[in-house]
Structures are given as C-alpha cells and as structure tokens.
C-alpha cells in the first residue's frame, strides 16, 4: 500500500495542509483536540513524514550560537560543555562567539546571527554592556529564540538560567567573617551586571548582620587587564594595610590578588584570607589552595540549552517563566584558614 | 567634480570592467603592469570605490571559522585572542567550533563550514583524527582557504603555523636530566599528531645524547578524561617507583601528575621533577610553581590569521611555502629544582 501524503490527510480531515503539518509537528498554536484527530488518522493511514522535505521546509540551520565574554574563565568553558551535550543529542552544532567584554562586538554578533545563520542563541552578556539591549530584540523579531545564562539581561523578556548569587555573596562574606576577617575588600566586575549587583548585595547584607559598616574604599572593579588589576590590588592593600580579607566575585581577580599578595609579601591566609567565585579545576593545586564559591557551570549550560531546544524543536515561544536558579557550592580550602586552624 | 566609476575607468583604459576591478583589488591573476596602469589613472581621476557594492558583489560572509579541540587548554584561548586581533582589524567576525578531540565532529563541522558560511578556516586538528583528511579537501574544492596551526595535518597542502616542537622536546628532557632526573616518564596525547611525534623525538634524542636507553614502559597516553589520567599516572608511579622525572607534552597531563603525586605523597620536585608544555597563566601560583615550555600561543594565532587574510582579502591561493615555525620558551620554576638548589 502506498503511504498517504500530507495533502491526502488534509482532504480526509477537511483541514488545511498547513494545519495538519503544524499538528503533526506539535506546534503550540494548534489545539490538543486537533492534534489528536490528525495523529489518529495519520497512524491509521500509515502516514510517514518525509524528513528531508520537512527539514528543507523548516529551513533549519541545525546550528545554535553561543555568545559569551571569554573562554579563559573556566565557568564558560564548562558551561559550553553542558550546552554542547544537549545540542549534540538534538543533532545540532554549536558556534561560539566571544565578545571580549565589548558591547559593540556583542551588538555586531547578534545582528550577524539574526540574519538567519542559527536557529537559536544562548547569551551571557558583556560586562560593559550599557543599558541598551535593543540589539537583542532583533532576534525576537526574527523569531530566533534566546535564552540567557549567568550574566543575564533583566530588561529582556526571555528565560534566564542563573545561580543563587545573592545567597552565595552572603555565604562567602559570612565565611570570611567566621574565619576572623573584619576588613573585607570586594573585587568585582561591572556593577551594571545583575550578577555583580546580587553578589554585592549579599556581601553588604552579611557585613550588616555582623554590625560592620560598609566602607566604599574597599570596592575595586576589574579593568579587564591583568597587569592593571594586580597593580590596583597592590595599591589598595598598601593604602589599607588593615584589609584582612578579599572576596573576589570573579576568578581572574582572585588570581590577581594572589600575585598582589606575593609581590607585597602578604601571607595568604595569615595576613589576608581570600575567597572567590571560581570554577578553576586546579584551585586545590594553588599555593595556598583557593577557597571557592563554585557555580554548577556545566548544569547552567545544559539547562539553558534544554530550554532553548524546547523552543527550537517544537516551534514554541519562550517565556520568562521558564527561568531557573541553580545553587552554587562553598568549597573551603587553605586560603581562608583561620590562625587557630591552619589549612 | 563628480568622481568616476569603474565603467568610466575601464573605457578610458580600454580594459574590461572586471579587469579594472580585479586590478584595484590587487588580485593575483592581474599583471603588475596592468595594476600600475589602472591605479595611476584611478588616482588621477579621483576614483572612490563603493565599499558597500564591493562587499555585496564579492558575497563575503565577513566571518572566519576556527576549529579547535577544546578551550579549557590555555594554548587555545590565547591563540583565539591572536586570531581575533587580526580578524577584527580586517572587519571580520570569528566563529569558534570545538571538536572535543572527536574526529566525527571535525568532519561534520568542516562540511557545515564548506557550505559557504565562512570566508576562511583555521584548524587545529582533533587528537584522535585518523589518517583520512579528505574532509579538509572539501574546503579547497569550494575555494575556501585553510590554514593549520599547532596541530597540523602533514598530508594537506595548506600553510601551517607551528612551533619548534622537536627542539622544545629535546630542551625539556635535557633540563630534567641536568636537574638530576634519570628515569623520565613521557606523558602525551595521540601519537598520531605530528606535534606529539616531534616532541617525543626530541625526548628520545636527549635521552640518547645522555646514553640513557629508551624504556617504552615510561610512555603514557592521555585518555582525554581527568579521572582516568590521574589514575593511570598513579599506577605508573606505583609500578615504577624509580621514576624521578615527568615530561608532560600537554598541560592537562601536568595537572593530573600534580594530583597523582599529591595522592601518593610524592614530593615535587624532591621525589619527582615535572616539566610541561603549558600556557597556564597561573603556573607560577601552583604549589610548587610549574616549569614550562611556553608556546607563543598568541603569535601562533595571529600569524595563522594573517596568512589566511592574505588569501581572503586578495583572493590569492595559499601555498605550503607560507608556513611558519615559531620558537617556544623554557621557563624554569620550582617543579624542576634540583636538591642542591631548592626553588
């Protein structure tokens, strides 16, 4: 028996070919009742979709784009692995684009991707992104789904996969206080990023809970340049010899703090205790081993990609309600050991 | 005065519009005499090219693709920075694709890029690539220029940017011997890679020069899995307690060696000295600081991209003769200190 085609199914059901096709593809804009009716007849008549025609008609690139600030940071290299696991199981390629923390590169790349090169985009925004996110709206206008991860854009109505940055900022600061630090420097990346704001709010809340007044002199922002960052941290430690703790909200600032302490002859943890957000695999091999707030980077990438593929595969629009918040982990090592219990 | 257009220039010179356009674009198939004639008149008549029309006519994607095994390795993240500097100065975007050391992913990605998404490709091949490189020929057939860097493909007629791997392997081994090591394990990635072969040939030559016989039991190949690698190194060190030196040809194997030594209670460098090919920025912050052969990763990326853009911009075919070999640097730190002079 020759199998039926879409047109025959549509005639039989008194529906348009488009409606039958959309029902078979489980599109969100077709009612469940219609989907059930179409599928029942399709099964009865042994309808076999032509996968090649279907792929052509949908004009899928079978590619997703990932826009991230950098890859030297281990958070992003792990997140990419999680993204690729999901992409691969869906038969997709992943193209990575680095913004190097530059807003103009991000804008330019989004425009390129919006031209139809990819079926979906995952974004972690650049740290000097100003508050104009209109370039991201372009993807929505072209029906290209977008999911944010880690460094999200509060102003854009898209799902976001983040971690418990406020709680983690609180716990990191609380840990330094528990270990005996009283004057804690806060090293951050751009204050405009929501993750930076939340981590800092956690820091401020933990200080307040211990009755310690906030001192704005203890805030230092990364210049995205290692030499400059080491110098700035040295200057801060020299001007404020009472600093006995450092909370780095980004891995690179922890490494710069290690170098600054070494250059100044400050002992970690005897003189200065250091904790950092970090996914550095070799944190335990550093001298001294680094205490970290470790984000579930792989899972963040995987969940963001899963949400994206729900949209790509089923042609379903994304909603902010699909956002997820995952938990980070405090991993205590020698860099925050108290005097009474050296690590 | 209204500026002249291409057609007017061509009429004036009694040449075809195509020839004039190609001469102005410095195409390789136009003689120098004709280029000089065309340019002289273009200057005289104040000819201004229309960059928008030119970009449309050439149908450029203004994008290059970079295919690499991984990003967690600092060599590749630095090389990408060098590539992006050159791409950017040419007004190009860089899309990165990770093979995760899997041959099939590499084949599949090359096919995707050959479909016309990019104007050129830079490749560092996967370590389990077998000897069939026919997928790379596809790019040549489509006139998409290719340049290899670091992990090159000897069998493909394309320019290659590499480092002095033989000399570096020799120097690394020589350094361990000078520091007192006599039984030196050699930790490598795939033997099929030309860089692995050259580094190992340097190791063998340095042993031979010191009259030390090669012991195949001292060779260990990475399984591309950290847990397995740490276990394999521990097993090797346990079976061969006489091992007093490790030469890791890849950064990840050095980090696994540190963990293996820590797990077994072997002191670095008193019991085992370790040297590694590595671009780890924080090598000096490890316990102990790691002695490295540091490749000029940024320059490798930059030179490979420069060669590629010579072809993209001038529509000139690439030749193997454009290949370059850069020099790596031995950076001595505490992990190879001899007993008489602790680091």
List keywords for this structure.
Rossmann fold; 6-stranded parallel beta sheet; alpha/beta; 6-stranded mixed beta sheet; 434 Repressor (Amino-terminal Domain); 3 domains; 15% strand; 12 helices; 343 residues; homodimer
Write the layout of secondary structure elements.
The structure is a homodimer of 343-residue chains.
Chain A lengths: L5 H8 L3 H8 L7 H13 L6 H8 L4 E6 L5 H16 L3 E6 L4 H12 L5 E4 L10 H8 L4 E4 L10 E4 L1 H14 L5 E5 L5 H16 L9 E3 L4 H14 L5 E4 L2 H14 L8 E5 L13 E4 L2 H18 L9 E3 L2 E3 L12
Parallel strand pairs in A: 1-2, 1-3, 3-4, 4-5, 5-11, 6-7, 6-8, 8-9, 9-10
Antiparallel strand pairs in A: 10-12
Q: Could you state the order of secondary-structure elements of chain A as H and E? A: HHHHEHEHEHEEHEHEHEHEEHEE
Number of domains of chain A: 3
Oligomer: homodimer
Which ranges of chain A are low-confidence, i.e. pLDDT below 50, for 5 or more consecutive residues?
51-57
Mean pLDDT of chain A, nearest integer? 89
Distance separating the two termini of chain A: 76 Å
Q: Which strands sit side by side, in order, in the main sheet of chain A?
A: 2-1-3-4-5-11
| CATH class designation of the largest domain in chain A | Alpha Beta
Number of strands of chain A: 12
The rough form of chain A would be described as elongated
CATH architecture classification name of the largest domain in chain A = 3-Layer(aba) Sandwich
Largest sheet of chain A: 6 strands, parallel
Strand % of chain A is: 5-15%
Q: Which class of secondary structure composition applies to the elements of chain A?
A: alpha/beta
Kindly report the greatest chain-chain contact and the residue count on each side: A-B, 33 and 34 residues
The gyration radius over C-alpha positions of chain A equals 25 Å
